[in-house]
Amino acid sequence: MKNLRRIQDLECQRTKTTCDLEKTLEVIINDYIQKNDPVTKSEKVLHKLSLRTVNSNASINTDARANDNASGNQQTQIQNTKIVENSSKINNKHKASHPKINQRVAISSAIKHQVNQRDKGQCCYTNFQGARCLNRRWLDVHHRKPIASGGDNSIENLITLCKAHHRLQHESAP
Ligand SMILES: [Zn+2]
Ligand SMILES: [Zn+2]
């Protein structure tokens, strides 16, 4: 409670307006979601990557202007470089996960982000009536075709399942 009051003080100070407890909680909750929700994170990362592809030409212009307006543009330049580095890392990892068959390789963060975006952090098990499991906790990523049988870390081969349905898949597998 002491920390909550502290954050309330800080938020009033930062926004220079009165901030009630409800608003303070909203700030804390949003911050938590931004930092810890894999679905929100994946949305941000994939959006950044798509912007990078669209703006790859525009970034050249930004670089040219970097000399005129130092700090702001330099920041953009650094960010762009980072994203390029990250995405090439991601691509390399992705490539590296393919060549050897039957060998378990960690799922790359790029693939994890795409799985999180597709499955929205919810178990994908559907019952015989077509109703999807509502579980958003205790989630695992399951390989539809096991690595041991030649399955890979492709998005198509990965599915989000809750612990119970994950167990069920493995028990019912031939
Ligand atoms: Zn599994
Ligand atoms: Zn489930």
Q: What is the rounded Rg?
A: 22 Å
Number of helices: 7
Q: Percent range for helical residues? A: 55-70%
Query: What topology, given as strand order, has the largest sheet?
Result: 1-2
Name the ligand types.
zinc ion
How much strand content do the residues show?
5-15%
- N-to-C series of helices and strands: HHHHHHEEH
How many beta-strand runs?
2
Question: Mean pLDDT, rounded to whole units?
Answer: 82
Q: Major sheet: size, sense and barrel closure?
A: 2 strands, antiparallel
Plain-language structure description:
The protein is mostly helical. Among the domains are: 2-36; 105-174. Helices cover 59% and strands 6% of the residues. The chain contains seven helices and two strands, in the order ααααααββα. The chain has helices spanning 2-15, 21-36, 38-54, 58-65, 70-96, 109-119, 163-172, and strands at 139-143, 158-162. The chain has a two-stranded antiparallel ribbon. α1 (2-15) packs across α2 (21-36) and α3 (38-54) packs across α6 (109-119). The longest helix is centred in the middle third of the chain and has 27 residues, at 70-96. The protein is extended. Mean pLDDT is 82; it is low at 62-97. Bound molecules: zinc ion (2 copies).
Q: Key features?
A:
two-stranded antiparallel ribbon; binds zinc ion; mainly alpha; 7 helices; extended; 174 residues
Brief synopsis:
This protein is mostly helical and 174 residues long. The chain is 59% helix and 6% strand.
Topology:
Blueprint lengths: L1 H14 L5 H16 L1 H17 L3 H8 L4 H27 L12 H11 L19 E5 L14 E5 H10 L2
The structure holds zinc ion (2 copies).
